[in-house]
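Interim report to the steering committee. The following record documents the input for Arsenate reductase (118 residues).
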Amino acid sequence: MPSEFILYHNNRCSKSRAALALLQARGIEAEVVHYLDTPPDLATLESIFQKLGLASARDMMRTKDDLYKTLGLGNPDLDNDALLRAIAEHPALLERPILVHDGKAAIGRPTENLEALL
């Protein structure tokens, strides 16, 4: 049976480690997805985007990352589908951590954002 909680995690990121520590401190067992090693497919990214309730997929992207700039993803003509495809092709663009639970999701920057899902 899959976990009720899914954490999209990068162990090299302090915010991501803090999110995992928060879950562990609460006794919450989450399915931890190391998204750089096992990237979510486009359908999964679309689902996360919907659960986050964002107007723009840019809000779930690392817009300050050099890769974002190199790929020209700041172009206002790019729609959410194009941005989500870019994340699917380059998972390092995905903001982290992201916690998914009970049909909702939150980006853990700051970690307090995750409280609403716990």
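The longest helix spans residues 14-25. The committee is asked to note this result when reviewing the revised timeline.
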